[in-house]
Task: structure prediction
Amino acid sequence: MLRKKLYTVFNKLHGSVLNILFPIACISCGKDGKWICEDCTARVFIQNEHVCGVCEKVNTPDGKTCQKCKKKSALGALVAATAYTNSLVIHAVHFYKYRFIPSLHVQLGDLMIKALQKTDIPLAELIVPVPLHPKRLRWRGFNQSSLLAKHIALNLWPQTQLELDEKALVRKKYTSPQMKINNFQHRKQNVRGAFCVVNPKKIKGKIILLVDDIATTGSTIFECAQVLKNSGAKDIYAAVIARQEIKKH
Result:
C-alpha cells in the first residue's frame, strides 16, 4: 500500500515538473492549455461516408463489410473517425504513440466517439482494445488502444458505461511493428497467430467493439476479429482514429 502511494505521489510530481519544463500547448496552433485546442479540434472533419473496411473498394454505410468480403472476414464494420491526411491528426497520433503523451487519448478518443455516434452499428456489449505484447507495453508505458477503449466505454453514450475488458485478447507472440512492414502479405503473416482469447466464456454470444488507434492494411484488426469470432463472439465491429493508406500488394 505504501509503495502504491509513493508511486502515485511520484507520478504527480513528475507530471508537474514536466508541465513546468515543457508546458502543454496545441500541437497545431500553439495555444496554451491543451495538446489540441477546441478551435483546432473543431476543424477536424469527422467522416460521414465510409467504405468496406476489408476491400476499401465498395461504399458502404458505416464502414460495414460488403457482401463479397463477408465471406472472408469476421469483421462486421470498420469505422475510421477521420482521414489520415489531416496534418493535425498525423501529428497528434505521432505525439500520442512515439512521444509518449497518454493524455492525448481524450481528444483522439472524442473524435472516435463522434464518428461512432453517427453510425447505426449495434451498441457493443463488450469493448475490447487491441493488446500490446508485454515487452512493447513496458517500452511504451501504456497501451494506446486501451486508453482509447476506456474513454469510449465511459463516454460513448451519456449515463451509460459500456463494459470494457482489456484482457479479453492477449498478444502471445512478439511481432515486428506493422508500420515497418510495407508489404500487405507480410503484414498479414506478421500477425498471424499472434493473438488469443483468454476466457471464451466472457465473449461468447456478445457484440464486440474492437478498438485500435490506426488501421493501415487492417491486418491486425482482421486477425483479432477472426480470433474473437472463433472463440464465440456474435458480431465484431471495429473503430480507429483513422486509416492510413498503403498499397496492398
User: Anything to note?
Assistant: Strands lie at 50-51, 59-60, 75-83, 126-129, 169-171, 195-197, 207-211, 214-215, 235-243. The chain has two domains: 1-43, 46-243. The two ends are 53 Å apart (CA to CA). Confidence is low (pLDDT under 50) at residues 6-17.
